Amino acid sequence: MIFFLLAYDVTAPAFESEPGRDFVDTLIAFFQNEQARWPQEVVASLLFAAGFLLLVALAWLLRYGFGRDDVRAGLASSALAVGGFLGAASQLIYLGAKQVAIDPHYCDCVYAPEQIISQDRALALADGTQRWLIMGFLLIAAIGLYLFGRLALDREVGGPWATVSFVGAAVSIVDLIAATFELDLLFQIGWRSAPS
Question: In the chain, what is the straight-line distance between the N-terminal and C-terminal CA atoms, in Å?
Answer without folding.
Answer: 28
